Amino acid sequence: MPVERKHCQCQDTQFHFLTRAFESLQLEAAQRELLLSPFRETTVSIPLRPNRNDDSELQTFMGYRVQHNHARGPFKGGLRFHPSVNLGEIRALAQLMTWKTALVDIPFGGAKGGIAVDTTQLDRHALEILTKRFTQKMVPVFGVHEDIPAPDIGTNPQVMAWILEEYSKTHGYTPAIVTGKPIELGGSAGRLEATGYGVACITREVASEMSLPIKQARVVIQGFGNVGSHAALSLSRMGARIIALSDYRGGVYAESGIDVSAAVRHVAETEWLEGLPETEAISNAELLALPCDFLIPAALEATIDCDNADTIKAKAVIEAANIPVTHLADTALRDRGIAVVPDLLANAGGVLTSYYEWVQNLQEFPWDYETILQRLETRLLSVYEQVRDLASSRQVDLRTAAYELAIGRVARAIALRGF
Ligand code: NAD
Questions:
Q1: 8 pLDDT band (50/70/90 cuts)?
Q2: pLDDT band for position 50 (50/70/90)?
Q3: Is the CB of residue 74 less than 8 Å from the CB of residue 161?
Q4: Which fold has domain 193-346?
């Protein structure tokens, strides 16, 4: 699908979901406008020669940081390095962060940023220089109590370490400036697997509500990066059968179940899932259409749209990625009785653990792995319960209930502070 179309869908989808919640909450037009408007948008250009043997051409990369709302605390959100990154996409994702942090009730607002770059075309040195130049230009808007970035697609703990280093040059050693950093630099135990683990906990809870023991659940996961691989590992440890996995290149399928640890090792060795022993190759489109209990999109936005929503045969869709289901597809799935657990709830384990990491950095006192995962699971399941109860009492879907809870909290904070 052309990239441009996905961008429009991403902003459009977010707008439609919000409108549904605004109407349900009966918010006035002026309030809606304030809640939708970003606080600040920063665009920077980053010149770089991508090749270290410096006869390569100078290229200019565009970098963005959209700070949507900080009524409840500092801006918080990931940095994405991907060729499709643009201001519209980042704007929609920044707004989603505002609702996500409010829904799980942590003292943060929402932001998102990124660089439009194909990182596969850069060597490690070029990626470090690009990250550090981006950080130099963003230093005025970043801050431990202002705006705290984290990893997203195409970024990882190493990228966070380079941001920490660049920021610390002017502010002294400041580990709390980023989350999702390496443990050696103040990163939190459990942060790497947090999002995927949270997705797995929610999936198990939904299974139990469907009276389906998790050990009998058949799961399909699209995307085998940080979130998808850890969701797969956690679910397979819980006893679920992972029957299909995929990445950018395509998918692998085994009705009897995939050995997820072997898949992780295979990707570490070959970079892709392709050729994983004891599996059949399938396309991403075929993977989405597999009959299963849970379909977990964990790759990009707008994976499930009006063109393929009718092919989905899962009993429930758990949105591990951000905005993976367009608003038209969301309606089509609901009409067919397929439950959708929305992104702001399903993948909130990541930002929750980012919050724990920030707290540990401020306290200068690390917590142990068990404490972190236990707190994550308890908080996430309690939020799920609140959303489910609200959805049932107001006769709305889970997404509208989640947005209602989140928007209500942000609107109250704005009113109290008097923006
Ligand atoms: P990642 O870069 O680690 O992995 C992305 C995966 O998706 C890779 O396996 C890639 O090959 C695959 N992919 C990319 N394009 C694809 C396509 N067209 N079809 C199929 N697969 C494709 O990214 P991640 O950190 O795992 O993030 C995945 C999603 O989860 C994103 O939507 C991100 O915003 C969201 N998310 C991430 C976190 C986090 O903590 N990392 C937290 C919340 C939400």
A1: low
A2: confident
A3: no
A4: Rossmann fold (3.40.50)
